[in-house]
Amino acid sequence: MKLSVAFKSVTLIAGAIMLTGCFMAPGADLTPNKKSKNHHYVSINETLVNAEPVQRIDYGEFEKTSDRPYQYYIGPHDILSIRVWNNPDLSTNQQVMSSPFSAKSSTIRDSNELIRERQQVTPEGVEVQANGMIFFPFAGEVQAAGRTVSEVRRELTQRLSKFVVDPQVSVRVQAFNSQKAQVLGEVQFPRPVPITSTPLRVLDAIALAEGLRDSADRAEATLVRGNKRIIIDMAKLLDGDLSQNHLMMDGDVLNIDNNRYRQIVILGEVNKPIAMPYDRRGMSLNDALVAASGINQSYSNAKGVFVLRSATGQSKPTIYQLNMQNATALLLADRFPLRARDVVYVDTAGVTRWNRVINQILPTTNAINEFNN
């Protein structure tokens, strides 16, 4: 008698759940209401998608960078190597010392090798004082800061000519200590990078920081120069557009942001839910589904492949729905372009929801049977 009552109770519960459309089933049910005022509903069909598959954008001809010659201007605390040929007593030492950047990591050491080459560091020389002056025998105090090595060489030659017959003077910067730029954010090794006589551009700075991390935003980067912010189109730059490869100056800060603000999230009944970086050069709905290893054929509802998009300047989001019950839907998915921060969701099949309800009811049924026994 008790077993019969328990069986009837379970049957009534199961029947009620079935009649109410499995409203108690676990998991999300994102089937949109086409007449809802809370969102815009759009069906993905031939009139909505592109005429051709979503392709990688070709930026065409790149803009040329400026051909203006680069000049390094000496600054305080730079160390100058000065040589007066045939007069060794008036020449500074030319021995090379190790870079002031030292690290145990082999990866970091490699980047330090590059920086040391840029700095051309030597242990001895003439240091430019805080007031921008240097002292050199027989020439006295000479203004060095704010000038090029050629300008300093000419003045030294002029002053030494009073004491040396036809002086042959060479000047070069041995230690670049006065100017630097910062590389921050999603790079392998954020660090200060010295400004030297070799032009430092954005790609050089990224290379000296050991490259980008997987989490780096490859759409945009920011170059901060004083009160000015320069937006760098990383997609174009990585495609070879050198107009985005800006020359970096003293005090510049290059910030590579995280890509969490430019991701596409793939959820639901897919084989591998992921958040993938958005590539502004072109991504389709097919690309997202492939990145998630495809939809789960055992549990997914092929009619319910949704793209949720919150458009800028609109109060209501837009929900796009694609029916993938036949193979031609893959062609539509290949022609539907995605945007940054889109959410791709694959709905759950009704029988899967029902099985999950049964799996939750069975422990209760077993407990009732145990109690009756």
**What is the overall number of helices?**
8
- The parts where pLDDT drops under 50 for at least 5 residues are 94-108
Structural class: alpha+beta
CATH architecture of the largest domain: Roll
Shape: elongated
Number of β-strand runs: 16
The CATH homologous superfamily of the largest domain is termed: Outer membrane lipoprotein wza domain like
Beta fraction of the residues?
Answer: 15-25%
Helix/strand order, N-terminal first: HEEHEEEHEEEHEEHEEEHEEHEH
CATH topology of the largest domain: Outer membrane lipoprotein wza fold like
Strands, helices and their partners?
Elements: H1 2-19, E1 40-43, E2 79-84, H2 106-119, E3 126-127, E4 133-136, E5 140-143, H3 149-160, E6 169-175, E7 180-185, E8 191-194, H4 202-208, E9 220-225, E10 228-233, H5 234-238, E11 253-256, E12 263-268, E13 274-277, H6 285-291, E14 300-309, E15 318-322, H7 328-334, E16 343-348, H8 350-372
Parallel strand pairs: 1-15, 7-11, 12-16
Antiparallel strand pairs: 2-3, 2-6, 4-5, 7-8, 9-10, 9-11, 12-13, 14-15, 14-16
Helix pairs in contact: 1-8
List keywords for this structure.
single chain, alpha+beta, Outer membrane lipoprotein wza fold like, wza like fold, 3 domains, 6-stranded mixed sheet, 5-stranded mixed sheet
Written overview of the protein:
The protein is of the alpha+beta class and 373 residues long. It has three domains: 2-55 and 282-359, Outer membrane lipoprotein wza domain like (Outer membrane lipoprotein wza fold like, Roll); 79-175, wza like domain (wza like fold, 2-Layer Sandwich); 180-259, Outer membrane lipoprotein wza domain like (Outer membrane lipoprotein wza fold like), CATH 3.10.560. It contains eight helices and 16 strands. A six-stranded mixed sheet has the order 1-15-14-16-12-13. Strands 8-7-11-9-10 form a five-stranded mixed sheet. Strands 3-2-6 form a three-stranded antiparallel sheet, with helices on one face. A hairpin with an 8-residue loop joins strand 14 and strand 15. The longest helix has 23 residues, at 350-372.
